[in-house]
Specification:
- The complex is a heterodimer.
- Chain A contains ten helices and nine strands.
- By secondary structure, chain A is of the alpha/beta class.
- Chain A has a single domain (6-263), classed as P-loop containing nucleotide triphosphate hydrolases (Rossmann fold, 3-Layer(aba) Sandwich), CATH 3.40.50.300.
- Chain A has a six-stranded mixed β-sheet, sandwiched between helices.
- In chain A, β6, α6 (171-188) and β7 form a beta-alpha-beta unit.
- Chain B has one domain (3-248).
- Helix content of chain B is 79%, strand content 0%.
- The A-B interface holds A 51, 54-57, 75-77, 79-80, 84, 86, 88-95, 99, 103-104, 106-109, 112, 151, 254-255, 257-259, 262 and B 2, 4, 7-8, 10-12, 14-15, 18-19, 22-23, 85-89, 91-99, 164-166, 251-252.
């Protein structure tokens, strides 16, 4: 068992796809109860790392510990111990908000007697209880995000993964969402592991920051320490100094193309 | 198997069923094809069939049409898996602390249930149009209906597990569905067809579903009910295993 003061410990993590080395020997650890920002340009290896941490992808080499368990050897224990909000929406649009949460509770083995109370608590927390019986397809992007956060917390995980939780939202909603997350971190000691492209968000809320580029960690520490060692005025400047100015092209997956197609059919909603 | 696993399967089953009852348009829309087949073929070919000594064509055709509607609904429930990949909901189920095989099984049973319900509705329509089933064998008939649903939902899930785009799925499914349907004995008896067609019918799982259903409801069958039953459910087990194996390999 690893030291209990770290929720996530990653050592020399490698992931190679056929031609691409997506992650090349990454190490970091996330102190329990902290807000940890995992930053990097598109295609740097962020999402691949999250997928390995959350049991969706098997690492090629290296070791991972999440809440004391190995995602490769004990995937079910690891899955019980974290909640996740994916980069892309993952709700069932044809179900109501309540049903989405209720079904999640069922999948995660939340005791049936406790389920209704917990669903209500979480929906109250993200201020969506009055919309509980509405179909999710009628929700705005921000409401879906809030609902996903509520869902991710339903089984009382110790770690919450947030992959670009605020992308595409207006500043009001973004602030709102960070308020929820900070509250969870302050009051319940929830460990939060998040990625974002908004550097000012990371600078403001994260206690620890890791910057990954080309599959390797290029900076690690507090936002302040990274800014200081880069000799810049802000985290955004430090980020650009460390990762360069070139625009990164992320290859669209088949799934992205389909999503675009569907968006066209549906008349650009969402 | 933990008790939670069964509950998680139930949850995934419930989701499919809820979605089915919620989308009335899909439910009613997919009744169009069987009704057209029943009316057009039933009343169009009926007199010819009777003249050729085949007896009452509606009696012969109805079990075939019930089987058809179940098969098409079942295979196309695979498309929901592709929607879920696209929508991201699949990821939500794949990070849940339940083995993938149970997730696949819950989904497949859900899809099979909706296809079965669709078959029951078509059954009622055939009776309204003039089909007179043997009431004594309704229970085995329902078992055959569910067997067909299970075989083809698992088949659809297996194909959908390997695919990412919907158009491709539609094309492949139609390529397979149509010959299976026409060469299953659903529309006409194949006993006097050329030998090679009889061979296709022989390896076609739908043949046994149609034959069993017809045996139970109209008391005419090529094989015994037990043969039909064992072959149909044997294929179901095989396809569920195949679907499960492919589902395990889905990359997200």
């Amino acid at each position: 068992m690893p030291a209990a003061d770290h929720s996530i410990i990653v050592k020399d993590l490698v992931k190679e796809y056929e031609a691409v080395k997506a992650v090349q020997g990454v190490s970091f650890s996330v102190p329990a109860g902290s807000m940890f920002a995992f930053l990097g340009p598109n295609g740097a290896g962020k999402t691949t790392t999250i997928k390995m941490l959350t049991t969706l992808v098997r690492p090629t080499a290296g070791s991972i510990t999440v809440n004391g368990y190995d995602p490769v050897k004990n995937p079910e224990e690891v899955r019980h111990s974290f909640g996740i909000v994916f980069q892309d929406p993952s709700l069932d649009d044809e179900l109501t908000a309540y049903e989405n949460l209720f079904f999640h509770a069922g999948l995660y083995g939340v005791p049936r007697a406790e389920t209704p109370g917990r669903v209500k608590d979480m929906m109250d927390f993200v201020e969506l209880w009055d919309r509980k019986d509405h179909l999710v397809k009628t929700f705005s992007g921000g409401m879906k995000r809030r609902l996903e956060i509520a869902r991710g917390l339903l089984h009382t995980p110790a770690v919450l993964f947030l992959d670009e939780p605020t992308t595409g939202l207006d500043p009001q909603t973004r602030n709102h969402i960070w308020e929820y997350i900070k509250k969870l971190n302050d009051e319940r000691g929830l460990t939060v592991f998040f990625t974002t492209h908004y550097m000012e968000e990371a600078e403001r809320v994260a206690k620890h920051v890791s910057i990954i580029d080309h599959g390797k960690i290029v900076a690690d520490g507090t936002a302040q320490s990274i800014i200081q060692s880069a000799g810049t005025a802000s985290l955004e400047d430090a980020f650009i100094k460390l990762t360069g100015r070139t625009i990164r092209e992320e290859e669209g997956s088949g799934m992205d193309q389909m999503r675009n197609m569907r968006r066209m059919w549906r008349g650009g909603k969402r | 198997m933990k008790s939670n696993t069964i509950y998680a399967m139930y949850i995934l089953w419930l989701r499919q069923v809820k979605r089915y009852f919620r989308s009335k348009s899909r439910m009613i829309g997919s009744l169009g094809q069987p009704v057209v087949f029943l009316v057009a073929l039933g009343f169009g070919f009926g007199p010819v069939f009777a003249k050729a000594g085949g007896g009452n064509y509606i009696q012969f055709l109805s079990p075939g049409i019930i089987a058809m509607s179940i098969m098409f609904t079942a295979v196309f429930s695979g498309i929901e898996l592709i929607w879920d990949k696209q929508f991201g909901f699949l990821k939500e189920t794949l990070v849940a602390p339940v083995s993938r095989i149970w997730i696949m099984l819950g989904r497949t049973l859900g899809g099979a249930t909706t296809a079965f319900l669709q078959g029951v509705i078509v059954f009622v329509i055939t009776v309204a149009i003039g089909f007179r089933p043997d009431i004594a064998y309704v229970l085995p008939a329902l078992l055959f209906m569910f067997g067909i649903a299970l075989v083809f939902t698992a088949f659809g899930t297996a194909i959908a597990s390997t695919m990412e785009d919907m158009q491709g799925f539609g094309l492949i499914v139609n390529l397979v569905n149509m010959p299976l349907f026409f060469l299953s004995g659903a529309l006409f008896p194949l006993t006097s067809a050329p030998v090679w067609i009889q061979w296709i019918a022989f390896v076609n799982p739908l043949s046994y579903g149609v034959d069993g259903l017809r045996g139970a409801l109209a008391l005419v069958a090529q094989y015994s009910l037990w043969t039909d039953f064992i072959v149909l459910y044997g294929v179901a087990v095989l396809f569920v295993a195949l679907g499960g194996w492919l589902f395990e390999r889905i990359k997200v």
